[in-house]
Amino acid sequence: MRPPNDRDPVATPIQKLRLLQGLLTGKSAFTGPFFISVDVTRRCNLRCLGRRFHSPVAHRPSPGNHNIPDMSLEMFAELCEELRSRNTRTLFLTGEGEPLLHHWISDLISLAKEKGMHVTLITNGTLLDERRIESLFGAGLDVLQVSLWACSPEDYKRQYHGSDSANFQKVIDSIRTLCRLRKEKAKTRPLVRLHQPINRFNFRKISKTADLALSTGCDEISFSPLLSAQGQLHEYVLSSGEKEELLYSLKTLAERLRPLPIEHNIAPTLLRYDSYGESGKKMPCYAGWFSCEVKVDGTVIPCGSCNIIMGSLAEKSFGEIWNGAAYRAFRRQAMTAEGLSNLAGSCDCEHCCYAEDNLRVHKLFKPLAPLLFSR
Q1: CA atoms of 303 and 288, how far apart (whole Å)
Q2: Which of 112, 168, 170, 115 is nearest to 136 (CA)?
Q3: Pairing relationship of beta strands 220-225 and 263-264 according to DSSP bridges
Q4: What DSSP string runs through 156-218?
Q5: Tens digit of each residue's pLDDT (9 = 90 or more) over 313-360
Q6: Are 326 and 312 in contact (CB under 8 A)?
Q7: Which of 7, 94, 152, 193 could join 145 in a cystine, given CB atoms 3.0 to 4.6 angstroms apart?
Q8: pLDDT tens digit sequence for 9-59
Q9: What secondary structure letter does DSSP report for 235?
């Protein structure tokens, strides 16, 4: 198995066997999460229309103490030590805001690398000056994912409410600078991924996003569907006709990229749009077994689209939370279709970001599905 948009393997055969052992119990996990997302800051320098935390048109409050703007070095270090003891090897550094606003972001990366983790940093790219780029090299970052909703200054102004349209060229120039410096220093990392979250106003621009990725020297390109924030962003969600147009465009783009030296996640994106909606209703959600997300203040939730609190690192260790009562109850509830239906008010499961992983686990363990659903 692998985390979304990341091609590095993250689960050993032993971990997979222990995952199976947990599935057989129906509640307790016998291995740590294969990958984990950590929100390092709530602060942001942009107001993206499609971001549910800072959008000017929608706001879905996240769980936890909002008086804490940044994760502390101490909490992060303790978390990394626990994750190492549980063989978690892949970490996403993200945020409700912009991770590069965290004063100690390079130190967070270095701490995670010292514990043997593969680290991806997700950024809007506006703060990627040469000094910060050098610090990312020094920290040993594995992947830098630059999320860009726009393909031109005009698009940028529309997608990023109240932002300077000149930011668009700034982001593109920063990516070029990083790729140039990496080549000059004969480094192989970080890999650079250009990411386009797809909404109604940019879904016809995916080919242009690919052009930008190729022209700036990116190693990868990726896409993801807009999550509707419990319907608050419904006007930005594709209609059925627009979705069909997008699916065709994605398949066409995949053929175009096939001979080119760039990786992409078009197949998983097609899965999220095309088949997961129906197939997902017929299988359990396994996300509670192989992943989790930690918020800035230490609040632990099953994934970024689910606001059900599993516990807090300010009160308990990660191990106590990972197999605590709340997590065990969530895993058991998510193993049935009825249970998943009852979670709908707390989780944005449409276009699930773990669709590929869920299907992979279900295919591997589907002989157990009748037993699991009957419990």
Answers
A1: 8
A2: 112
A3: parallel
A4: HHHHBTT--TTHHHHHHHHHHHHHHHHHHTT---SEEEEEEEE-TTTGGGHHHHHHHHHHHT-
A5: 999 999 999 999 999 999 988 888 788 878 877 777 777 878 888 888
A6: no
A7: 193
A8: 457 888 888 888 888 877 789 999 999 999 999 998 887 665 666 565 666
A9: G
Buried b (16+ CB within 10 A) or exposed e, 43-71: bbebebbbbbbbbeebeeebbbeeebebb
CA distance 61 to 289: 25
Angle value at C-alpha 47, between 181 and 202, nearest 5 degrees? 75
Coil vs helix vs strand at 361? helix
> CA 148 from chain center: how many Å?
14
DSSP state of 102: S
Q: What value, to the nearest 5°, has the Cα angle with vertex 198 and ends 65 and 153?
A: 95
Residues across the chain: 375
Beta carbons of 46 and 163 less than 8 angstroms apart = yes
- Residues contacting residue 302 through CB under 8 Å, at least 6 positions apart: 287, 288, 291, 292, 293, 308, 310, 327, 330
Say what the alpha-carbon torsion angle 128, 129, 131, 134 is, to the nearest 10 degrees.
Answer: 50
Residue type at 295?
Answer: K
Beta bridge partners of 214: none
pTM: 0.91
